[in-house]
């Protein structure tokens, strides 16, 4: 029983199992839970081991939840876990069907049996979440005695809503365990900390927040599991973007007081984003079974940052860079691409597209007769490069990484079946201005990107003396307009009212709107903002909406 007046306080060791699970691999995920629970019991003397939300299925399982065999596979997994009879109690996440309805559940397994189960009360249905497509809403509060301590359970969104924490605390919970699959975006950890500080202090209850880590398609889960005491003080924090078992010791009497651990250093935005990109690439490549990756290295900043991320994610031996020069490719670009490839130690090839371009133009001479060169000829260069990269992909089983950034994707400054051809776009949700900062950050760790790649004016080099800003506003202006229109949903008039030039705004907004069809055909990429092009933003291609007011 919990300590009473005059009795010794109860000590409790909670291990936050911040792990990376594979969606759909229920047997593999179950084994990962078993291995972690055994280790936590034997090596860490855990009393309770807490795993992330829906850890048995991985998150988000999406329409796998509609498979008729899902219930059977989850039931088998739970039987396997119960048969283990772990020394610590474990808390796992799984989909559970009851009364014909499916729930997002947290289950306490203790002494070889399911001791309690809690159904998530607020399945989210915004941004990248669509849980109401699958899950019913739970109705009940759960406060369970675990190892002599009154423990309340909540799942992810429950803690962002009013009710679950408040009601569990009112029923005597001294410790709230919150199971999460909370995806990363810039500033998310700070928002989580502010929420947990408020919830724990207002309700005078300790909260252990356990988050998933790993990449799942466009989502990256960053971990950052934490424990806040009843006064709202952060007492323990696991590192972001890293798997591990992180123990928190609590002394429970009138309250459960976590033993404070040294604070982690606060990462810069650039460091945080860079680690998210690395994790997203590593998991996408490895979980999908690709041997290696290949990308076009142009001598420009986007491909330079993409190459650095790929090497940091996978190792130089699994990365191939290809320079594909044409008559408009500058000598500087050729030199800088080779310098970076050599600095990072990747396989590096140079294949000129000149002969292929000439062959295409010869074939097209008759239909093009009497016309002037335009973007058709420029796009042909990009498409020839795409064919080369996809051929290498097919022959060697290498995933093609595309290199377009969010600013380009937004305004359609990309070529279908050209530089958009590939399987994964590392920088898809990274605005151009942030790309520059990421390059400087990576060079601060070790200088691998030639400095003039970062400092020279960006150019696609598809025409003589071409510069990006010849056809776009400066990136410092463009990215601000895009943030307001794409991520904040402000109208063109509202953006102009903030001081931006009407001509620039109307032009950018129009480009965003008319290029929805391109983005639908683009590869997925790591999401690092609150609103990326993908699950977040779903606009009809065919529509008559006027973007002014």
Automatic annotation (TrEMBL):
Organism: Marinobacter confluentis
Keyword list, A-Z: ATP-binding, Ligase, NAD, Nucleotide-binding
Highest classification ranks of the organism: Bacteria, Pseudomonadati, Pseudomonadota, Gammaproteobacteria, Pseudomonadales
Active site: 53 (proton acceptor), 120 (for glutaminase activity), 156 (nucleophile)
InterPro entries, sorted: C-N_Hydrolase, C-N_Hydrolase_sf, Gln-dep_NAD_synthase, NAD/GMP_synthase, NAD_synthase, Rossmann-like_a/b/a_fold
Catalytic activity: deamido-NAD(+) + L-glutamine + ATP + H2O = L-glutamate + AMP + diphosphate + NAD(+) + H(+)
This enzyme's EC code(s): 6.3.5.1
Top-level class of the enzyme under EC nomenclature: ligase
Residues where ATP binds: 296-303, 403
Known function: Catalyzes the ATP-dependent amidation of deamido-NAD to form NAD. Uses L-glutamine as a nitrogen source.
Stated name of the protein: Glutamine-dependent NAD(+) synthetase
NCBIfam families in UniProt: nadE (TIGR00552), PRK13981.1 (NF010588)
GO MF terms held by the record: ATP binding; glutaminase activity; NAD+ synthase (glutamine-hydrolyzing) activity; NAD+ synthase activity
Superkingdom of this protein's organism: Bacteria
